[in-house]
């Protein structure tokens, strides 16, 4: 989608989905801790290879890295994360 140069530019956010694998039986506990982190917009439980999916929106790539490395991955009982960085089509 093209944006007219006359229109003000919208502030772009870094958006990502983080798939989280955690210790069995600790999903609710991990989800509660995720709620306290700035930048987490949605949390959902899943069935399959991952236990939880978290939607993230932050202002910069560095903020995204910080949130994942020093926030999500530091939560007790989180074993692994997989991140998909997204760019909206429109």
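^ structure tokens above, recovered residues below v
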């Amino acid at each position: 989608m093209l944006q007219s140069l006359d229109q003000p530019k919208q502030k772009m956010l870094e958006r990502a989905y983080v798939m989280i694998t955690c210790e069995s039986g600790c999903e609710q506990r991990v989800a509660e801790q995720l709620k306290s982190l700035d930048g987490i917009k949605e949390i959902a439980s899943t069935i399959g290879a991952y236990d939880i999916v978290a939607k993230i929106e932050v202002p910069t790539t560095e903020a995204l890295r910080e949130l994942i490395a020093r926030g999500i991955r530091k939560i007790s009982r989180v074993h692994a994360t997989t991140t998909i960085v997204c760019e909206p089509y429109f």
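The two ends are 6 Å apart (CA to CA).
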